[in-house]
Amino acid sequence: MQKEYRKELKAALANSRIKLALSRAISSYRQNTNNALKKYPHTIKMAEEVLKIKQYAIQHMYDLAQEAGKNIEENKGKYYIAMTADEALTIISKLIGRGKLVVKAKSMTAEEIGLREHLEQEGNEVYETDLGEFIIQKLGSRPMHILSPAIHVPREDVASLFSKIIGRELPTDIPTLVATARELLRDKFIRADVGISSANVVSADTGTLFLIENEGNIRLATSAPPVHIALVGMEKLVPTLEDAFKVSEVTWRYANYAIPSYVSLISGPSKTGDIEKVTTYGAHGPRELHVIFLDGGRVKLAEDPVLRQALYCLRCGGCLYECPVFSLTAGYFGDKYFAGIGTVWAAEISKNIEKASSMAYTCLTCGRCKIRCPMKIDVPEMIMKIRKSIAEE
C-alpha cells in the first residue's frame, strides 16, 4: 500500500496536466473567495458562531438524528439510521432494487461508502450529474477534490473525452463543453426512477435538508424522479433551522461564492392542497422521500477531544487550495477525503490505517489550512496525534 501510494504521488508530481489545472483553479478560488469575504465581511464573524453550533451538534449527533427523523416522518418522509456503511448500502439497495435508472448528485458520503459502484453491481444504471463527477465517471477515475472532483482535469482533456463520447471533435471552449454535458444528461433526469443526493446541512427541529449548488443538477435530481433518497452523514445535523441557514451561508462564502445560484430546502415529498385544501402527496415532485443518516464511526470519533475537529468541517474545500502538497498532487494526497484532514477520515472512519499513516507523514503540518478554514480546524494538531498513535502501535 505504501509503495503504491508513493508511486502515485511521484506520478502526480510529474504530471504537467495536474499542475496546469490546479494552478488555474487555485488562482480563481483565492480571488473569488477573497472578493466574497470582502463584500460580506460579517461572514467571518458568523463563522465563529457556526463553530459553536457545530461543537454542540457534534456532541449530540445521535439525538439530533432522531429528532430530525421524527420531523421528517411528520412531513410524510421516511428516515433511517445506519450505524455502518454496509447498513446504509443495504437500506438503499432495498429501496431501489435492480434494473433502475438512477441520477445522482455529488456526495462525499456516497463516495465514502462506494454507493455508485455498489448500485451498478446490483444491476442499476447510475449517472453522476454534477459536471465534475460526470467527467470523472466517464474517465473511469476518482474525485480529486471535495467540491471540484475533476479539478485535476484541464479543459483540453475534457474536450478530448467529450469528443469521444459524442463522436465529433469539440473545441476546448468551456461553455461548449458545459453545453455538451447538459445535452448528454438532460433526458436522464426525466427518465430516472430514483434521484440520490446528500445534504450540506440538516435542521433537526424541522427535518429540513439544505442543498447548496450552482449547476441546477441537484434540483433536477431531487425533484424530477418519483423517489428521492438522501444519504447524510450525522455530522451535517444542527439543532435549528436558523442554525442551518448560518452554516449554509458560511459554507458557500468560503467555498468560492458570494451567493450560490441555488439553495434548495427539502422537508418532505411533494404535496398539494389545491383541491378543497386536502393535502395530497406526490404532486409534480417526488412521491417518496427517504433520508438515511449515517454514523459510520462518527459518534465514536466525536468522543476524541482532538480528532473530533474533523467533524466540524463544512466541506467548503478551502483548505485544499492552501495545501502545498495538494497543489502539486491533487487528490493523490488523499483517500476518500483529501490532504491533512483526510488523514483523520482515513484513520477513524475508513479504518484504512496503512493509508492514513502514509498521509500523516505526507502532511507538512504547516498550518496554512487552519488559517483559511472558517472553523479553524487545527489539522497539524490532529496529524501529530495520529503520528503519535502510529508510533505507539
Number of DSSP E strands = 12
> Using only CA atoms, what is the Rg?
21 Å
> What percentage of residues falls in helices of 4 or more residues?
40-55%
Poorly predicted regions are: none
The CATH class assignment of the largest domain is Alpha Beta
Question: Helical stretch count?
Answer: 19
CATH superfamily of the largest domain: NagB/RpiA/CoA transferase-like
Give the termini distance in whole angstroms: 18 Å
Describe, in plain words, how this protein is organized in 3D.
- With 393 residues, the protein is α/β, with parallel strands linked by helices.
- The protein folds into 2 domains: 2-39 and 305-392, no CATH class; 60-299, 3-Layer(aba) Sandwich (Rossmann fold), CATH 3.40.50.
- The chain is 52% helix and 13% strand.
- A 6-stranded parallel beta sheet has the order 1-12-7-4-2-3, with helices on both faces. The chain has a 4-stranded mixed beta sheet with strand order 8-5-6-9, with helices on both faces. It has a two-stranded antiparallel ribbon with strand order 10-11.
- α16 packs antiparallel against α17 (353-360).
- It is globular and about 65 Å long.
- The two termini are 18 Å apart.
Essential attributes:
393 residues; alpha/beta; Rossmann fold; 2 domains; six-stranded parallel β-sheet; four-stranded mixed β-sheet; 19 helices; globular
Layout: helices, strands, pairs:
Layout: H1 2-13, H2 16-39, H3 42-59, H4 61-74, E1 78-82, H5 85-96, E2 101-104, H6 108-113, H7 115-121, E3 125-128, H8 131-139, H9 155-166, H10 174-191, E4 194-197, E5 201-203, E6 208-213, H11 217-223, E7 227-233, E8 237-238, H12 241-254, E9 262-266, E10 271-272, E11 280-281, E12 288-294, H13 298-301, H14 318-322, H15 326-329, H16 339-348, H17 353-360, H18 368-372, H19 379-392
Parallel strand pairs: 1-12, 2-3, 2-4, 4-7, 5-8, 7-12
Antiparallel strand pairs: 5-6, 6-9, 10-11
Helix pairs in contact: 3-12, 9-10, 16-17, 16-19
